[in-house]
Amino acid sequence: MEVKLEQVSKRYGQKLIFENLNETFESGKITGLVGDNGAGKSTLLRLIAGLDLDYTGHIYYDGQPLRKPLYQQMTMVFQTPYLLKRSVYDNIAYPLELRHRPAAEIKQKTETMIARLGLEKLEKQYAHKLSGGESQKVALARALVFEPELVLLDEPMSGIDAASVSFMEQMIQDYVREYHKTVIMITHNTRQAQELCDRTVHLNGAWMGGNQ
Ligand SMILES: Nc1ncnc2c1ncn2[C@@H]1O[C@H](COP(=O)(O)OP(=O)(O)OP(=O)(O)O)[C@@H](O)[C@H]1O
Ligand SMILES: [Mg+2]
User: Fold this and answer.
1) 147: pLDDT strictly greater than 50
2) What is the predicted pLDDT for the residue at 212?
3) C or N: which end of the chain has fewer Cβ atoms within 10 Å?
4) Domain residues of the chain, as ranges?
């Protein structure tokens, strides 16, 4: 799914976060969203996710404005992931259950995700009792398991150990390449922005005196 921003501006009260943003996020590409703390990265992701409708300008999804069915085709992983008070397995299976997928498919896809992220030993554990990094892995698995067109990731790998970072990166890359989906990912990791992302977009924070 291609996402196109046209003259998008956002304020919180008097505070201008960004002004007249024009960007196209292409299908089959990973775009990194970078910028200082407070620059407006999470804010922009929430706008694209349709979670904050209080802005001016236009956001088009494959040329169309936001409509209800589109929410089913996109997903966002938050800076602090929130998981259901259920097991790891049930959290990952949940998006498939919501979409009434057949039981065999739910089982197969959930187990595949668990194996790819090395979460086998945790699958029965309650998700709200996981460590921060474990929660982030479960959140990523839950985001990708239903194969959404648009994946919005807000610092999905902050605080993740080096080995886990490399297989999470591989997972995201495989996902985009195999299925030709769109990923927009916030990162503070310069190496990751350069190596994993096909392109980066810098936000400077209009209120901080930066230029877009
Ligand atoms: N609901 C809100 N009401 C008022 N101001 C807000 C609100 N949410 C965020 N802000 C402000 O908007 C600015 C951008 O916030 P945002 O969370 O988008 O930054 P960010 O680029 O994601 O930063 P970080 O790297 O620290 O996560 C910040 O100065 C923040 O204080
Ligand atoms: Mg943020």
Assistant:
1) yes
2) 46
3) C
4) 3-208
Beta strands in the chain (DSSP E): 3-12, 15-25, 30-34, 56-61, 74-77, 150-154, 182-186, 199-202
Compute the distance from residue 49 Cα to the ligand 2 centre, in Å. Answer: 14
Q: pLDDT per residue over 104-132, tens digit each? A: 999 999 999 999 989 999 999 999 899 99
Atom of ligand 1 minimally distant from the CA of 203: 21
42 lines ligand 1 (CB under 6 A): yes
Q: What is the pTM of this model?
A: 0.94
Residue owning the nearest CA to atom 28 of ligand 1: 38
Where are the extended beta strands (E) located within 62-108?
74-77
Whether the CB of 12 sits within 6 Å of ligand 1? yes
Homologous superfamily of 3-208: P-loop containing nucleotide triphosphate hydrolases (3.40.50.300)
**Is the pLDDT confidence value at 210 over 60?**
no
